[in-house]
Design a protein that fits this description.
two-stranded antiparallel ribbon; Uridine Diphospho-n-acetylenolpyruvylglucosamine Reductase, domain 2; 3 domains; 25% helix; alpha/beta; binds flavin-adenine dinucleotide
């Protein structure tokens, strides 16, 4: 720890005593304001270091709501954190760090037929893929930090990976986000017109409905749509275009009814 950080750590302890006590009273999850914990969360994979006021580990949605309310009351900013593997200081700051990776990391619903999975933001990509693999599926955005990075952090960074040229980046693969805004309002960010994500691609062409490399394959049989962004085909059609100029950019969207449900 640098001398500046050590000084900040000592000063922060007395400055945020009220905040710590309030959080400790209301949260079922752990609240840590000790210098060691704050020091660990003062860094990500970047060159930057900023000592946070404290760190909380919410257990559930109620904890999360309480964190945001108390932070508002105390005038402290909130910094969401997954695995902290960002390289530009995204998950660090002087406010209250909220670590989603410890407890908010479940798969809340999963439909292998529709290839839609709903997860809590702290789930590590590799763990999600271990589950999907049993059905011959995988989540196609794969940053090099796949064994550590979380879906929440990947979404925050709009991450990409080695397969992104074929399958797109996070914004192409996230169907909806259920969020709590800073003022406590609950919001769903979801479909806007045809701006839909890709379904989870199959590991093998045999398993692959909607595989762009296999345009004759049926797409979501009853209600799915093919859409092709090469400009030569209508934006949306029930049958797969057979002569797309840029088949890799062809997209298959799942029906509205298959949009992931709220975890609550
Ligand atoms: C060696 C190395 C290789 C890398 N390779 C790649 C790569 O190939 N592709 C790539 O895209 N990136 C790469 N990265 C960067 C990083 O690993 C990824 O962007 C990763 O997806 C970040 O995930 P995380 O869980 O660590 O997020 P964090 O670093 O913890 O957070 C990232 C952002 O998301 C926000 N956030 C986290 N959780 C939530 C939440 N629940 N709600 C709202 N906001 C939230 C944070 O506040 C922050 O702004 C690499 C980094 C390293 C060190």
């Amino acid at each position: 720890m640098s001398p500046t950080l050590a000084r900040d750590a000592a000063a922060g302890f007395s400055r945020h005593l009220g905040l710590e006590r309030k959080l400790g009273r209301e949260l079922s999850g752990e609240v840590r304001f000790d210098a060691f914990t704050r020091g660990r969360y003062a860094a990500d994979a970047s060159i930057y270091q900023i000592m946070p006021a404290g760190v909380v580990f919410p257990n559930d949605l109620a904890d999360l709501e309480a964190v945001l309310r108390i932070a508002r009351e105390e005038g402290v900013s909130v910094i969401a954190r997954g695995a902290g593997t960002s390289q530009n200081g995204q998950p660090i700051g002087a406010g209250l760090v909220v670590d989603f990776s410890r407890s908010l990391n479940a798969i809340t619903s999963y439909d292998p037929e529709e290839r839609v999975v709903t997860v809590e933001p702290g789930i590590v990509l590799e763990r999600l893929n271990a589950r999907l693999k049993r059905d011959g599926l995988f989540f196609p955005v794969e940053p090099s930090t796949a064994t550590r990075c979380t879906i929440g952090g990947m979404t925050g960074n709009n991450s990409c990976g080695t397969r992104s040229i074929r399958y797109g980046i996070m914004r192409d693969n996230v169907l909806a986000i259920d969020a709590i805004l800073a003022d406590g309002t609950e919001a769903r960010f979801g479909e806007v017109g045809h701006n839909r994500g890709l379904p989870l691609p199959a590991l093998s062409p045999q398993a692959g409905r909607g595989d762009p490399a296999n345009p004759s394959a049926a797409c979501a049989p009853s209600t799915g749509r093919w859409a092709c962004s090469c400009g030569r085909w209508p934006t949306c059609s029930r049958t797969a275009p057979t002569a797309c100029a840029r088949p890799a950019r062809m997209r298959c969207s799942t029906p509205t009814t298959s949009a992931p449900r709220s975890p609550t």
